[in-house]
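ERR on first pass: missing label on line 2. Operator R.T. fixed the label and resubmitted. Corrected input:
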Amino acid sequence: MKTLNEVLENKDYGLYFGNRILLPFKCHVLKAIFENEIVDDFSSSLEGASYKIEDEFTEIYYHEVKFLTDVVSKYKGIKLIVVEKGNDVFDFNNHRKIRLLLDDDHKLRIEEITEDELFFE
Amino acid sequence: MKRLWKYSALILTALFANPLFAQTAQEGGEKAAETVHALPPTVMVLPFVLLLLMIATGPLFYHRFWEKHYPKISILLGIIPVVYYIAVLKNTHILLHTLAEYISFIALLGSLFVASGGILININKKSTPLANVVMLLFGAVLSNILGTTGASMVLIRPYIKLNRDRIKPYHVIFFIFLISNIGGALTPIGDPPLFLGFLKGIDFFWFIEHIWHIWLPAVLMVLAVFYVIDSQNMPKDVDVKEYDGKIEFKGTKNVFYLVVIVVSVFLDPNVISWVPSLEPLPFGIREIIMFAVIFLSYKRADKEILEANEFEFEPIREVAYLFVGIFATMIPALQLIAHEANVLGNKLNAGVFYWATGGLSGFLDNTPTFVNFLSAAMGKYNLDVTQTAQVHQFQILDPLYLTAISVGAVFFGALTYIGNGPNFMVKSITERSGIKMPSFFTYFVKYAIPILIPIFAIIWLVFFYGRG
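pass 2 clean. output:
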């Protein structure tokens, strides 16, 4: 299983299908922004968003829509604050800010959000 | 007699709609061609009302449907009066005039939007109430040069960054009050209603000359309230974080483009006589320059800055589509309001115009509201808002009413998220950065009513009450 750093360095893609996202690394999701919807409650699997760490990937569902492409524009993408599985969630240094961009053919481009960009915890 | 007048007007408008006669009419005096138009029936205002209601309610109550279908809705509603004017009233002159205004309007907004999107400012200073007040005041002034949209685009991110360690929704709300709305009341570039007023014949510097003495106390009062709130919310614990005090500015070449846009605003044959007119084309040199700026500033912009600003064309695309419908559906409303104002006009004073223009501008788009009330005020003097010379005449004849309408349209846009275009943009950028903003009703009830309404009431008492 790859780490987030490896995924970013290799520019590996994730995947998306409908309202489901597959990240090629294991992580806890602390906060997500889909277009302008801020989601930090992942407790329900019926509304908002939920995530699950599988053996080979992390999957996130955005339950508010059937297709992510309906609400997520091509250039803005989805913003996430994640902590890689195994790292201390309570250490802010482990909080990583990433952006997911919806490319063609279900490919999900993963980029680290730079200091120039605004993204508050 | 009324019927006879209508038939005569129809025949005359049909004649003037003919290109040959239209040309003669222009040579002989634009006034003659315009003042004899037949009035549309009241029912033709319905597409305008429906469109404004949908613009107000769509993003709030059925935003998925609205986001997907607003271009079609806007165009379809716009087609109704266009077809009526062509097929029934045979009045193409007013349609071409409106098209020219629309192109100018979109050219200015689009060019300011794209050019300012390529600028990135980073401020590494400690956030204090005074630093925020200075930045908000600077932004209020800047919004008269870049437009409320441009100034909001350029400043919202550095403003949030300045406050990154203690940002609260009220910071952004005061930004919307001052930079996205009230600030832009001094020039036609400041806010779209004023630019439309300029296109219709009001002098560029008329606004600053007649509004600065209202603008200044309004801005200072809002800033004073902000200062008190921000001081109370300033963390008491000592901030150990170090700041180098640097202000980093990226995208300098886009400043050049902004200067080009501002200068090109004056390149109008009505403003500078040697500027060539491109008639019968519905645009001029000014619009060509502005569209060129859109193309060049985007093509040559630093991609890193565009990404950092999360730049995309959607907001301006939305404005372009919605205003196609607004400009088209507004035509019958303008004619009818002007006509009715002949009857009701004398019963309405400047204070009524201030509150009515403002009240509607808070919930509907402030540009059509401004033009409709301008049309109503001009109707009192039998003047026609579609006639440049008559609008110019009105600014001299009754500056008090024009001031009340201008101030109402610009200031009250801050009342709600839907009052002015940049409000939603600022809200959206803030939420994209992870900060939860108040709902539509919380914004209105908790912030706009208690803070803005008393200030607007003071403005009314001092400048408009019992006058006009």
